[in-house]
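Homework help board

Subject: predicted structure for assignment chain

Our instructor gave us this sequence and asked us to write out the predicted structure in token form, then describe one feature. I got the tokens but I'm not sure how to describe them. Can anyone check?
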Amino acid sequence: MKPNVSTSPTAQTTALAGVSLALGLLFDWLFYGKIPGISVVIYVVAIMGGLFALAAYLGRRLPAPALWLLLPLGFFAAMVAVRASHLLALLNILASLALLLLVARLTFRDDLRRFNLADYAKIPFLPLKFLRPLTRTVAEFFALRSAVKNHPLAVQITRGVLLAIPVLIVFVTLFASADLVFQKYAIDAFNLKLNSTAVAQTLLVTFVTLAFTGAYSYIFRQPEDESPDAAPATARLRLGKIEIAILLGAVNVLFFLFILVQLAYLFGGLSNISGQGFTYAEYARKGFFELLAVAMVAFGMLWAADKTVAKTTAGHSLAFRLLSSALITQVILIMVSAFKRLYLYEQAYGFTTLRLYSHGFVIFLAVIFVLLLVKILRNQAENHFAFPAFITAIVFLAALNVLNPDAFIARQNLDRFHQTGKLDGVYFGGLSEDALPEVKTAIDVTTGDTKQQLIDSLATRSEPSDWQSWNLARSRAGSIIDNYPE
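My token output:
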């Protein structure tokens, strides 16, 4: 059956987005914080109901091969509400998901009887094909052409604001989680309580809504896109200078406000923090990983903006280069804040493998941002950024090998022991053979339970007897272990 020509593209986009949003909200209501049961049956019925409703609205008839799959789909969904075995429930849910993907693949397309083994093997990766139709649907939804078709500037401003709002929500949430003072200011400014549950549910609904928007768009729109009579689609989504300027400008302002808080409190001394009702320890002990997430999200946003913003023959506009430069500079300053927070935590609780690698990753990420800045300022092609980034990754890993992380961690914790008298014997003794010379030193300078914990840790070590497993550090450790029998 041909598509209903009376249904406008705007109406199609609205219908796809509306049904997907309803499924996103229903998913949150049925599953968030709950054990799957009858909810699986209800949700599968809702998904198929959305498929039938959209098919009727868009004037499409679902093919029989896809409809036959409803029988096993209904059975597996129902069995989640029948059997109590956790493993069996998981298998039933996975089977239901696979059948739903098969329905999406077969609708208006292939015949299941012609599938090869490779075709079945590709089904788990089908959601990757949802991305392009999702992008097209979201772009059309944001454009709002029918409402403001005579005002192209209004279209660009609207798209810019719609792009900026979710990005700002993500960054505000991360900043508020990372910094207690910023969280206090955010609560006072918006007169709300940051609720991790509400944030998680919002993100969950958004993700599910986008997933179904992509799936339904793939089902109902891809055939037209691939038909010979279809108008050629734009190869790549492009955003105008105004949209990107609004997005980068808003994020720059938010980052600047956060940096002001850091300068006043994290770097401003104990008295400023005490005035807000926090101790320096509780203020500085958290936030590193949230700020690291901020840096990584910012990198992804800048990379996407660099790829999608419309360029002139000379490359990026001056405004884009200035806003990107300002944002990268501020991200580096935020990473300095993250670095200091982790340093303060290490001073209080000692070095660990995770903390050391995190410190190193901050430095690596800062170099990557500098390379990205150079690429943007010089209007270079992406390969001029990718290859130096690849070399940087190799150098970073080589530097870690030269540093000998476990030995470095052991030395730092020994220095801390000499200053504070505190040493975690269990963790220290659990370091690899690379740190055994330092373990020997620690055994000589410690007493009591800590000393015994270190000696006991040696008893669990043994050098593999086969020559294929020979290792220099393990070989050298043999003599140290022999000196401390059980």
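Reply (TA_rk): Your tokens look well-formed. For the description, you could write something like this. The chain has three domains: 1-236, 238-403, 411-482. That's the kind of observation they're looking for.
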